Amino acid sequence: MVEHAHSYPTYAKVIHLGIAVFGITAYLTGDWADGDGTSLGYLMHTYLGLSLAAFMLVRIAVGLSGSQSLSFWGRSPFSRQQWRFALEDIKTVAKLGLPERDPHQGLAGITQTFGLIIFTWMGITGTGIILLASEEESNVFEFVEEAHELGESLIPIYLVLHVGAVVLHTLSGNPIWKKMFMR
């Protein structure tokens, strides 16, 4: 087992925590959002979602800025190398092993990118719903609302992959969660 010495700076931990807290709580309060737009449940879901959108904007800005820990540059989820690593990782998991990669590579990198895309999608479509609320009968509003519901169905898949990987690493003696929450 290889334990990577990589740790995240405080700003990366705050961004991760913000996305996790606001993303999950917005997801969990989604059923409360039904109503006329003034109910407590609707307002709670709306403000949690807007907070997620703000954290996603920060995450994207940091990723594009060249931050060493969170940079998007040089790690494309669409590269052949990334998918080759991911296939190797899947084979390793199928043999009841755990992949040993640098952060953001292989299956871990694709999973993380999947999560960033979903939460960005939810932030954009949720904000669109708020901005188009006065046009609830329009086709555009209906499209954005359906797109938001599509994203909602993908969140549990992402959470199972991401949290499941963290749990498996922890059970195997490599508690990678500590890199995000401890020094």
Automatic annotation (TrEMBL):
Question: What are the TM regions of this chain, as residue ranges?
Answer: 12-30, 42-62, 114-134, 154-177
Residue ranges of the Cytochrome b561 bacterial/Ni-hydrogenase domain? 8-181
Broad class of the protein's primary localization: membrane
Give the membrane topology: Multi-pass membrane protein
Protein's cellular compartments? Cell membrane
Keywords of this entry: Cell membrane, Membrane, Transmembrane, Transmembrane helix
SUPFAM superfamilies this protein is in? Transmembrane di-heme cytochromes (SSF81342)
InterPro entries listed in its UniProt record: Cyt_b561_bac/Ni-Hgenase (IPR011577), Di-haem_cyt_TM (IPR016174)
Indicate what this protein is called per its UniProt record.
Cytochrome b561 bacterial/Ni-hydrogenase domain-containing protein
State the organism named in the record.
Zhongshania borealis
